[in-house]
UniProtKB/TrEMBL annotation:
Self-association and partners: Homotrimer.
The name this protein goes by in its record: 2-C-methyl-D-erythritol 2,4-cyclodiphosphate synthase
Cofactor(s) essential for the protein: a divalent metal cation
UniProt source species: Crenobacter cavernae
Similarity annotation: Belongs to the IspF family.
GO molecular function: 2-C-methyl-D-erythritol 2,4-cyclodiphosphate synthase activity
Keyword Metal-binding: yes
Function according to Swiss-Prot or TrEMBL: Involved in the biosynthesis of isopentenyl diphosphate (IPP) and dimethylallyl diphosphate (DMAPP), two major building blocks of isoprenoid compounds. Catalyzes the conversion of 4-diphosphocytidyl-2-C-methyl-D-erythritol 2-phosphate (CDP-ME2P) to 2-C-methyl-D-erythritol 2,4-cyclodiphosphate (ME-CPP) with a corresponding release of cytidine 5-monophosphate (CMP).
Keyword field: Isoprene biosynthesis, Lyase, Metal-binding
């Protein structure tokens, strides 16, 4: 039996924060604001994985009011979500995600993100796809005020 899940996240770009996407620190003059490390890509994937198994969402598992998750490494949160999905009898088949970032250019970092995500999901990097898009300079994404991520995930009953 197969199930699909979908995830979305957006975080504001601000000065004085590191830019971390897919567990990779990117050289950029701004970073994403959040209670955790604000890795929007991993948050969208976490929600897609949880969604596929009908296990709620990232904020329910890891509330942004809990000091335990302040500055949290989102890879740790993703791994915990995957552990819960596995414990419910599912394994992740593949993930496809899109990052909408007017800047910086993501292409040089995509394979490093895929490797991290694959490791956290317990699958081959060949089953993880990450795509970068600009927002054609339109709206708050186009003005570099935020970065958005969207993801889908397929799971199979183990
Ligand atoms: N932050 C980004 C955005 C895009 N790319 C790459 O450029 C291609 C064209 O993007 P458009 O938004 O102009 O359609 C896209 O397919 C990516 O390969 C990128 O590396 N980083
Ligand atoms: C990850 C968590 C928890 O630290 O906080 P944020 O980094 O603010 O991220 P968000 O995507 O808003 O929601 C999930 C949170 O509860």
């Amino acid at each position: 039996m197969f199930r699909i899940g979908q995830g979305y996240d957006v975080h504001r770009l601000v000065e004085g924060r590191p830019l971390i996407l897919g567990g990779v620190m990117l050289p950029f003059d701004k970073g994403l604001l959040g209670h955790s490390d604000a890795d929007a890509l991993l948050h969208a994937i976490t929600d897609a994985v949880l969604g596929a198994a009908a296990l709620g969402d990232i904020g329910r598992l890891f509330p942004d009011t809990d000091p335990a998750f302040e500055g949290a490494d989102s890879r740790v949160l993703l791994r915990e979500a995957v552990a819960r999905v596995n414990a419910a009898g599912w394994r992740v088949v593949n993930v496809d995600a899109t990052l909408i970032a007017q800047a910086p250019r993501l292409a040089p970092f995509i394979d490093a993100m895929r490797a991290n995500i694959a490791e956290d999901l317990g699958i081959d990097a060949g089953s993880v796809n990450v795509k970068g898009k600009t927002n054609e300079k339109l709206g708050y994404l186009g003005r570099q005020e935020a970065i958005e991520a969207q993801a889908v995930c397929l799971i199979q009953k183990a």
